[in-house]
# Entry
Amino acid sequence: MRSFLTVLITAFLLVITSSPSFANKRVALVVGNNNYVNVTKLEKAENDADALGRSLQGLGFQVILQKNLNRRDFNRQLQRFLSQLSPGDEALFFFAGHGVEIRGQNYLLPTDIPNAAPGQESFVKSEAIGVNYVLSEIGRRKVRLSLLILDACRNNPFKQNGTRSLGRTRGLGTMEAPPEGTFILYSAGFGQSALDRLSDSDPHPNSVFTRSLVPMLTKPGLKLSEAARQLRRKVMKLASTVSHEQRPAYYDEVLGDFYFTPPPVGDTKTADPTPQTLISPPAVIPGGGTCGIWPQIATSATYAQVNAFLAECKTGIYSKLAAARLKELKPSATNKIAALPPIIKKTPPSGDAAKIFSRAWNLFNGKNGERQDYYEAVRLYRQAVDLNHASAMVNLGYAYENGFGVQKDNYEAFRLYKQAAGRGETQGMTNIGYMYETGKGTKKSLAEAVKWYRKAAEAGNANGMTNLGYMYETGRGIGTDLKQAFKWYKKAADTGLPRAQNNLAYMYLNGRGIRKNERTAFSFYQKSANKSFPNAMYMLGYMYELGKGVGKNQREAAKWVMKALKARHPFAVKEMTTNANGWSVTFRRELQRQMSNEGYYNGSIDGKFGNGTFNAVKAVAGQ
# Structure
């Protein structure tokens, strides 16, 4: 009989507020300005934005595509873009249009830029969008990658006065070395101008730079730095056909490799790793917290809710399922379980507050014929809050906590949650508990967290019940009491909460707070797994493999482990790439067979796990 090491992996079990994620999402702001009012119009910039936006959407970017932005709208869309960035994200900013260099700084011009003259540099700078400002604001969000692509190196659109000009006469200027994690790509070298078209009769819809860039994005395994070099050669060759010198420039401060399209997974045969002991699964789910609520909202969530979920749980245990759902709701969008009731519609009280709340909810979620608009939604939520609408307080607090349509402000979020809780809103109570537990917007206090979780739990909130059970199980802010932990997990599980069902199964499996019962544990894992809870999927595979609570069945074991891998469950990925030899040969063959049937693996079905199998496992998990 093999020996098993039980590992308890702790995680936040809260369902409301933001939690750290294990990977990143991709967010892009794509702007194309043709219709300048006071300076020379362009012809290709809108088409450039369309072409790049479509390509980025196909590569998993959440794209904000905008055209012909005046100064006010440019700033508004920039703030919208910035509000969707979180630590670890990949952020891309693309601008096609007029740009100008003034006193060593580069500026992007909105469509309503005035036709200024030399000596009016300060005025132009105040009316334009500074590249350094964009870069610094992205950097403040602590993203993993800041990628700026500027097809704005055209001739200076401002009129010359004799021998003087406002700024550099053509192209953009050099920059100081950007911060680590930044890549800036210019459509032309410093002091050069970029061609909007090869000639007046050029039929191509895109600029010379963009038409050369877009095809490179989909080349598998093409590193960003190599793509820039290839792009430079291609643009130089095209421009030379009309005797023009255009040599794209770039700054590269990115550590490691970045691919728009990852390289294909190969199968390299190597010797098997040294057999290791199979590690038994965790007590509580990694990536719990906000990310654990997906099964509850999977079928009813709106586009905005799924989008918000993916922002918090970028490539966590439910991200793949959420990304697929997002495409069903709105095929042109991509990648964020945040969430919770802060954005789950409730039946509001009658009267003006109810109407305002309903409109705000529709705008926030882009539902019922409303175009999604966080800024207007926040304005209306404030009105509803002024009319003492408790659900609006929670939703506005959620907006402040996560930066939707407003600058992030945990203190204001905490105040609003508390205001809602004072009116009996149980989700507000649970949120307050989380804020106290993590020290967000208030002084950290586990005792206060327990108090608020208890209030929410006793008022019937399943998330509060589960969080309270977790505090009892781990002794956080309260003495460890496994019977109380079991009690609250059971109450929450009875409501159908899959996260609670998973935790309750663990209690039965290990005899924590209740007599050990593997059959009952299997039953609760099955309920949770059938609602797409990744840890429960992995645990079903574990139990089928060992015959715990059910007859041994390696085919079923492989099926459920495969599901957990597809859900990007980090523990399942780690187990199959570091401890796979602790599982039976029959199981390993079955997993290879299933990965082969789905096109992830092309090696021998022999149960021997080498690099080829490990690469296939990672590919299943989207790594």
User: Anything to note?
Assistant: The longest helix spans residues 224-240. Residues 26-252 form a domain with the Rossmann fold fold (CATH 3.40.50.1460).
